[in-house]
Design goal:
Blueprint (H helix, E strand, L loop, with lengths): L4 H11 L10 E3 L5 H16 L13 E3 L1 E2 L6 H9 L5 E2 L3 H20 L6
Parallel strand pairs: 1-2
Antiparallel strand pairs: 3-4
Amino acid sequence: MAWLPEAVDFLRRAFEVPARPCWAFSVGGVAPDGFLGRRMAAQEVRRVQRKFAPGLALHVHPLFARVVDTREVGLAGRAFWRAVGGSPGDARDWPAIDRWADRVAAQLEVDQVVPPGAA
């Protein structure tokens, strides 16, 4: 439920190069579907971003669902998981991940054609 220290360090170093665009994504247990899922996903993204360097402006920072294995989770945890609409299994939305990656690639192509500050 936290970014790896190496990933946070990478973003800190990326922030030190102001002309470079930066994208990031998080992976969490909650699929950002439905009202409660969207609220929990937004809360998770805000919690993670508090560890980012102040002023770091990411183009986009989505939260993608992950594979969930509740076999090691206690009864209360499983009940909560069900209450928020979760279910065990592979919740990854590969088409959404592909769309996000395609948008990043398209923006990188635009950035290669038009240098920052030249437009």
